[in-house]
Specification:
Layout: E1 11-14, H1 22-29, E2 33-37, H2 40-44, H3 47-57, E3 61-65, H4 74-86, E4 91-96, H5 98-113, E5 122-123, E6 133-137, E7 149-154, E8 159-164, E9 172-175, H6 185-204, H7 210-232, H8 237-257, H9 261-273, H10 277-292, H11 297-306, H12 317-334, H13 350-358, H14 372-384
Parallel strand pairs: 1-9, 2-3, 2-4, 4-6, 5-8, 6-9
Antiparallel strand pairs: 7-8
Helix pairs in contact: 4-5, 6-7, 6-8, 6-10, 7-8, 9-10, 9-13, 10-12, 10-14, 11-12, 13-14
Amino acid sequence: MAVRRLYWPAINLIGPGCVKEIGQEVINLGKTKALFVTDKVLNQISVVKQVTDVLDASGIAYVVYDDVKPNPTTQNVNDGLALYKEAGCDFIISLGGGSPQDAAKAIGILSTNGGNIVDYEGIGKSKNKSAPIIAINTTAGTASEVTVNYVITDEHRKIKMVMVDPNSLATVAVNDPELMVKKPKGLTAATGMDALTHAIEAYVTAGAFPLSDAIALQAIKFIANSLEKAVNNGADVEARSEMAWGSFTAGLSFSNCGLGIVHSMAHQLGSEYDLPHGVANAILLPYIMEFNLDSAPKKFAEIAEAMGEDTSKAASDLEAAQLALAAVRKLSKAVGIPSLKETSFNPDDAAKLADQAMRDVCTGGNPKPVTAEDMVALYLKAYNG
């Protein structure tokens, strides 16, 4: 077997109420003042206060930056960095889903490496470890709190820049399902389908290996069992806990083995139309699974089983694999994912988006070779249903 270099945060707190332990983690770090990176919605619904109350009780100083957009921009990064320096911060606390987490990673990298965030697009471009980050997740979806990946929108070029950088890894990752209970149905559904996409792409990606396979398959089981419950009853802490574990394990998997063209194509929908990332993934997922099906039929059959489908009567792995498509479509419909035609997608943009997606770092991980023409066809197939 090949040598593997595995990455995940040194400390991971997961379970109801675990956010109350972050005060001790800050004390252990020996840091004095945090840049608290989040978004306005979490501030408005008092999730930020749930965390700052913990910090206040521990005597930890902080300054709040809550302007992060749903698709964080280079401007968000620059503004956050300016506040970090101006306030004399020496570490970062990020609170939210993928958007605040990604913005915090970018700020952390620039705080220790300098330059402009566009300089770091691609794989392993930084030299120095980020400022310490305590990453508190509030959505069971992106898993940015545990990964070496982050995505920033270059609003000038209208593209999503994907960075894969071990130096951006959080120091402490926190997954407290009690912070997730106020999430609205639509956001719960979108982020949950994002987590499912992570797990499925990680399971079949070209870079998959035994450990990534094991945790990706477990993530699929968690999500298939609990997403609809969490959407229908946001206060169901057990379902929220399973989703937290599903997102967490999916993140550990894909961060160490890669993704595929669901993500590279979804990134373009996010940058061009500001479509939420989880929605973009969910829309594209079954069409791209179908495209990739013959590259790993046995694995897709195992995905079907993990999602609760009975494959025992299937005449072949390929026939069993088809049940995975049906399971994904069924779950998407149950949690209210729209069709591509219901979004602002313009089919005339398909060639441009495909060209951009071919250059996305996720494309190389797809389990079978893909061309720009293939991607155009997939965008149009998704649009036409």
